Every structure is written in C-alpha cells, then in structure tokens.
UniProtKB/TrEMBL annotation:
It comes from Halolamina pelagica. GO terms for molecular function: hydrolase activity. Pfam families: Abhydrolase_3. Transmembrane segments: none annotated. This is Acetyl esterase. Keywords: Hydrolase. Residues 29-233 form the Alpha/beta hydrolase fold-3 domain. Belongs to the 'GDXG' lipolytic enzyme family. InterPro entries: AB_hydrolase_3, AB_hydrolase_fold, GDXG_lipolytic_enzyme, Lipase_GDXG_put_SER_AS.
Amino acid sequence: MTDLVLPGPGGDIRMRRYRPDTDGDVPTVVFFHGGGYVIGGLETHDVLCRRLTRESGCAVLSVAYRLAPEHPFPAAVEDCYAATEWAAANPARLGGADGLAVAGDSAGGTLAAVVALMAAERGGPELAHQALLYPATGVEPSQESVQQNAGIVLDESDLAFFEKCYLDSEIHRRNPYADPSNAADLSSVAPATVITAGFDPLRDAGNGYAEQLLADGVDVRYENYPSQVHGFATMAIDAAEDVAAGVGRDLGTALGVR
C-alpha cells in the first residue's frame, strides 16, 4: 500500500495504491468511495479496496475526491476523471501494465459510471470495465425500494440531504455527469457489473440503470443480494467477501488477469 498525491483541478487529490501479491506487472482499477459525496475517504474503504485487489489480481487506486457541501458538483467528478486520466498515463506508478477499469460503491458507483460516460464521450482513457456497487443512478422518491426500505441504513431525508449538499443548483439534477441515467445514449460506455441489495432504497435505481445499459447494447452482469442492506460490501460479513470475489473476478477477467 502506498499513498500518493496528485495535483488536481481544485487542489491536491490524495490517493492510495494497492498491489496484489505478485512480482509481475498488472493493470489497474481506479476506485471511488461511497458516502453520499459528503463523507467517506481512503480509510473507510480500505478493507474493500484490499479485497478487490486480492480478488481481481489487479492494482487498485483509491481516490479521495473533494467532498460536498464545501465542494459541490462538479468537484468530485472533476477529481475522479483527473485521477483516471493520470492512472491511464502512469501505469508504471501503479500496477506496471496497461489496462484500466473503474469501480465504486454508492455515490462512488455513480462517479464510476460518470467517469465511464465521460471517457466514452470525450475520447478519454479506454476502460475495460466499470463495476458499480449499489450506485445512486436515477433515484426517485416514488420508487418501490425507497418506500419499502426507508429507514434501513438510509431514509428519504438522508437521500435529500446528500443531494442538497452535492447539487447546489436545481439545474444540475438532469446533468448526465451528475447522474448518468440522464444520458440519452450509453452505448459507447465500458461493459459493466451492477450490484444491488434487497433492503436498500437504491435497489430499484441500480436495477434501472443496469436495464438502461442493456437497452443501449452494453454488456452487463447484474446481481441483486436480496438479504443485504446498503453499504454491505464494506462490512465484516460473508456477503461482503462474496461480492468482492464476484466483482473482483469480473474486473480481473475484463483486464486479462484471469
């Protein structure tokens, strides 16, 4: 594990590199943590990043992007895209081999999806895969999962609070770089793994984004963990190990490690 600092568009971006237990060169997965764009960081997702490194056989670069409300949209997006561009240009500082994917959980899952969309639209880094763990893509208060699971880890007031902190203007709500479910065409983005949890208010949003990707011709592996709650991938439970193994396998396969 090595801590790095990247001069970013709004100041230094702290990052943490993880390498698998191998002497050979490996590709890299750029990881964005969850926390509603308001909380979280390198430490809160250290265990998950270690699991993904082990299970994928790839290096993992965890990114501590700027947080709201001090730094509302598009600060986090700018930092995550800058870190991804840097990773693509500096494989020797990371895993040593070319090959890049993105991953994230919750708000970080949304950021990973946004980076995949930006890379496709801007001719940016070529991404082999995007792994989205219970992303906040297309969340609406009327969704059944929001109504059924309010108060289990997250409730409607939490979702509203995070959105208010992150989107300081109503005009941003329909921006595809704030929420990629707003994109008119996703057909050029990287293949995806989308994970949801049964007792998660974001379940229907994640499922809807997986269906949107499929409808636009993107290869998707979708899996719902029916007995789990939002954030379960960071917990000390068997299901967290299971999801890391599955997502790690997808990433390693896409990047030619497995």
